[in-house]
Design a protein that fits this description.
Number of helices: 0
Order of helices and strands: EEEE
Largest sheet: 4 strands, antiparallel
Oligomer: single chain
Number of strands: 4
Radius of gyration: 14 Å
Strand content: 35-45%
Length: about 70
């Protein structure tokens, strides 16, 4: 992964956009699946799902999330 500069959020100009990765349906790593502003008051996000781009979807806390078993 390139360790270039983290871009500033163009919506709030206070936070930074950080990249998030995930796993695809077949278990392969999907790098840069989403970008999220680090400013919690801003909430800007951009996500890629099944080749479509989604902007500003609601963000939920992951505190109650239980990881699924990978057996």
């Amino acid at each position: 992964m390139d360790s270039g500069p983290i871009p500033q959020c163009l919506k709030c100009h206070r936070g930074e956009l950080v990249p998030l990765s995930d796993y695809g349906s077949q278990g392969a790593t999907v790098h840069y699946k989403a970008w999220v502003c680090t400013n919690p008051e801003c909430g800007f996000n951009i996500k890629i799902r099944n080749g479509d781009i989604y902007l500003n979807e609601p963000i939920a806390s992951g505190a109650a999330h239980l990881p699924r078993s990978r057996s």
